[in-house]
Amino acid sequence: MQLEGCDTVYYEEENDLFRREGSISYSDLKVINSYEITFLVIQFFKSKQNFRYRKHCHPGYEIIIPTAGVYTCLLNEQELSVAVGELLLVQEGDWHQDILHPGTEFTVIAFAINNPEHKDFSDPANANIKWKLFKDKTAAINQKITRSHDKLSSALFKLLNSTGASQNDSSAYYILNGIFNAFFWKLIRWFPEEQLSPMFAKNLKDEAAKLILLKIFEKNIHAKLDVPRIAAGMNMSRSQLTCKCKEIIGESPARAFIRYKLQRAQTYLKDSQFAIKQISDMLGFDDQFHFSKTFKRFYGISPAAYRKKH
Hints:
This protein has 2 domains: about 35-195, Jelly Rolls; about 220-310, Homeodomain-like (Arc Repressor Mutant, subunit A, Orthogonal Bundle). Helices cover about 40% and strands about 20% of the residues. It has helices at about 25-30, 150-165, 170-185, 200-220, 225-235, 240-250, 255-270, 275-280, 290-300, 305-310, and strands at about 10-15, 20, 35-45, 50, 55, 60-70, 70-75, 80-85, 85-90, 95-100, 105-115, 145. A 5-stranded antiparallel β-sheet has the order 3-11-6-9-12, covered by helices on one side. α2 (about 150-165) packs antiparallel against α3, α7 (about 255-270) crosses α10 (about 305-310) and α8 crosses α9. The radius of gyration is 24 Å and the shape is elongated. The relative contact order is 0.10.
């Protein structure tokens, strides 16, 4: 399974009535991601004369992408030149000063990282810790990279520019937020992993592990799946799989797989006319009684009562 791009089918389902396939869903992403990337604003600059903007400490994140000429700045006291085809990612807390020259044009995209789950608010010493993309003391030059010019990245950047330049109503923000999130997750993988903060690098690895695990669950949702087969699919030992599942999902692999099946059962109960026995058979339970008993153990209500309620 590819972890980037949109060409890999994630969801597959087939029965006597229809075949359906599609991409990873919002609910899956809420399980995978413990943080959110929020687009703030996109701005376009064209320098008319030599000019130094005031030195300032960044309250958030910015991506600076030259579109004409060479963009120059001081970043944490180091002078950088960023050419067309490159980009600079300025981190929260960085000291930054633009050094502009006539004819230089560049796009600035501001965004925030919302990541409350990684702060231990029970410890007052951790209450104001800033969550960062790069390791501490990362050299400013390492926050500059050459842009990948694959079709998807190029198309996303063009969409950001064209949509941002013509935004004239509130709906444009939601469009830009979606486009930017796709662009961000492409570009962050252009940076070498060793330059990313340990927390962010770990989260990228955990996301990859969760995606592979969910793919295994989806592929076997109509059947039974034991822990050894899950471990083989994850290329882990049983003990490694158990530890990793508890770390990234919070429960055992067997229980996580049952929960995954029951979440699909909830969808069928709400949005389809399948009989409860059909749903039980489709999801690989021993029989309807086993399905109903398991559903009630997880949700405190029988499948029939759940369907009536919803």
